[in-house]
């Protein structure tokens, strides 16, 4: 689980990050956004609407007339974090509106926090706005309340999340997202492209495509075709990715795909990733969750029967520089030592570049809770440690092999000592590693795409020097 960057959370922020402070008398809201990047996009949409209606945004509790808490309810630990954030907002501000995934369980929230003003579920933007209007009436001033063309972004200006669909048609046993967010609902491709184009025009250099199931994009729309730029665009992930990658030259834009399931048509994306003229990055964030077919069947994972090692080999044949990131669950009910060892052996073969690993946790409402043979905590912990040790060794060796390479990086931050924190094409923000440049960064600006030579590697990060471009 991630949350919005600490410096943009009223509960953690030392100072306001929004450029323009609220004017005197302007109705003002605070927002605490918990959960995954998808929830962050929802928060951005709510704030965009509120800004359009003339509300100011406060980065501290004291300056806000009310606070919206966008919650996460995926794991029990995330629920606890959400309840804690609601409690803090009530204590510090007193007027609190709750939305997001945990909003699907209003009684649960009200049992803990009866004083909240309103609860709405995920994506109920209109209901959130109604609750805000009731709590803090709007006071629009058409001469000053101009909505920025791209809306309000909680992420730094040079990268932006782009949500292409919502919900999921699968029923993985450990997951309650389909119950909370409903079945797959894709946005039409031309609407996604229009939003992406606006973001790129506003200076965004990296688009992070997100959804619950990116490979399934458009299935619910029967891959409909809509007019776009004098031609037509099909609501299919291959066509959408190609068009996103053509919005700007590959030297000026990065397009990164997240949450891609290993369906056979993913193969169509790989030649685009290998095309130097298309801005689609050679990067696949593909949640395998496990490698043993019996565990995958017990999890009821989509594409459980796919021969993933063969697929990975084929992807690498077409696009040798592809970076593969994945997440795994260890200690799922019924996982035997032999099945876990199969996963470790698979990792040796697959040589994934980046991995995350979760110890299985029961989630209220998940079907996996009722599966037999739950794995004891100490066994889960021991497997997690063995898995991470292997993943770390692979990551270290992969990074060491990059020393001496010339690559393009994006600048995320430059501190007061002139040290630039950057990322290579192999690194997504907030979940992967960094490349640091220690010297000669005068003249660099956040969001620049520059060329470096890698000169040092650690377990997860790289160091490099600027190369005259
Ligand atoms: S594919 Fe499975 S894990 Fe992913 S959102 Fe759908 S049900 Fe949940």
Structural class: alpha/beta
The CATH topology label of the largest domain is pyruvate-formate lyase- activating enzyme
DSSP strand content: 15-25%
CATH homology superfamily name of the largest domain? tm_1862 like domain
Give the averaged pLDDT, no decimals: 86
Which ligands accompany this protein?
Answer: iron/sulfur cluster
Distance between the termini: 37 Å
Count every helix, treating DSSP H or I runs of 4 or more residues as helices: 12
Which strand order do you get reading across the main beta sheet?
6-9-12-13-14-15
CATH class of the largest domain: Alpha Beta
- Give start-end ranges of low-pLDDT stretches: 1-20, 142-149
Number of individual domains: 3
How many strands in all? Answer: 20
Radius of gyration: 23 Å
Helical proportion? 25-40%
What global shape is seen? globular
Largest sheet: 6 strands, parallel
CATH architecture of the largest domain: Alpha-Beta Horseshoe
Describe, in plain words, how this protein is organized in 3D:
- This protein is α/β, with parallel strands linked by helices and 469 residues long.
- 30% of the residues lie in helices and 21% in strands.
- The chain has helices at residues 37-52, 76-92, 106-112, 125-135, 177-181, 189-201, 237-245, 269-274, 293-299, 308-318, 337-350, 377-400; strands at residues 28-33, 56-58, 66-71, 96-100, 118-119, 159-163, 165-166, 185-186, 206-210, 225-228, 231-234, 254-257, 280-285, 323-330, 354-359, 406-414, 420-424, 435-437, 449-457, 462-466.
- The strands form five sheets. Strands 6-9-12-13-14-15 form a six-stranded parallel β-sheet, sandwiched between helices. A five-stranded parallel β-sheet has the order 2-1-3-4-5, with helices on both faces.
- Helix 11 runs parallel beside helix 12.
- The structure holds iron/sulfur cluster.
- Iron/sulfur cluster binds at residues 168, 170-172, 175, 177-178, 212-213, 302.
């Amino acid at each position: 689980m991630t949350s919005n960057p600490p410096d943009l959370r009223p509960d953690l922020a030392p100072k306001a990050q929004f450029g323009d402070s609220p004017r005197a008398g302007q109705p003002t809201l605070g927002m605490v956004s918990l959960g995954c990047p998808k929830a962050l996009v929802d928060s951005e949409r709510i704030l965009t609407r509120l800004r359009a209606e003339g509300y100011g945004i406060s980065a501290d509790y004291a300056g806000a007339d009310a606070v919206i808490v966008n919650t996460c309810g995926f794991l029990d630990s995330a629920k606890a974090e959400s309840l804690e954030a609601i409690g803090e907002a009530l204590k510090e501000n007193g007027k609190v509106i709750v939305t997001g995934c945990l909003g699907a369980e209003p009684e649960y929230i009200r049992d803990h926090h009866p004083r909240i003003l309103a609860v709405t579920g995920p994506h109920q933007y209109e209901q959130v706005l109604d609750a805000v209007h009731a709590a803090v009436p709007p006071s629009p001033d058409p001469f000053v309340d101009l909505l920025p063309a791209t809306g309000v972004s909680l992420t730094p200006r040079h990268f932006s999340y782009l949500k292409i669909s919502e919900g999921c048609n699968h029923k993985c046993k450990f997951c309650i997202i389909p119950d909370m967010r409903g079945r797959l609902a894709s946005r039409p491709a031309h609407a996604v492209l229009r939003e992406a184009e606006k973001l790129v025009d506003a200076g965004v250099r990296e688009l992070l495509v997100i959804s619950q199931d990116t490979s399934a994009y458009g299935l619910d729309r029967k891959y409909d075709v809509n007019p776009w730029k004098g031609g037509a665009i099909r609501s299919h992930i291959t066509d959408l990715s190609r068009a996103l990658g053509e919005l700007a030259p590959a030297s000026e834009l990065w397009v990164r795909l997240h949450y891609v399931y290993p369906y056979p048509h993913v193969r169509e994306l790989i030649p685009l990733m290998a095309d130097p003229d298309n801005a689609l990055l050679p990067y696949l964030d593909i949640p395998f969750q496990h490698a043993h077919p019996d565990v995958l069947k017990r999890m009821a994972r989509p594409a459980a029967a796919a021969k993933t090692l063969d697929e990975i080999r084929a992807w690498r044949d077409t696009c040798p520089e592809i970076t593969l990131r994945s997440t795994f669950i260890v200690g799922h009910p019924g996982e035997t030592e032999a099945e876990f060892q199969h996963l470790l052996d698979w990792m040796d073969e697959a040589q994934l570049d980046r991995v995350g690993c979760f110890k299985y946790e029961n989630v209220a409402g998940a079907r996996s809770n009722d599966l037999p043979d739950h794995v004891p905590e100490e066994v889960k912990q021991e497997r997690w440690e063995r898995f991470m040790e292997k993943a770390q060794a692979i990551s270290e060796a992969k990074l060491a092999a990059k020393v001496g390479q010339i690559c393009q990086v994006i600048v995320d931050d430059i501190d007061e000592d002139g040290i630039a924190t950057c990322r290579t094409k192999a690194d997504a923000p907030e979940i992967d590693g960094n490349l640091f440049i220690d010297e000669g960064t005068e003249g660099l600006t956040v969001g620049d795409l520059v060329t470096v030579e890698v000169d040092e590697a650690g377990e997860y990060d790289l160091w490099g020097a600027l190369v005259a471009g």
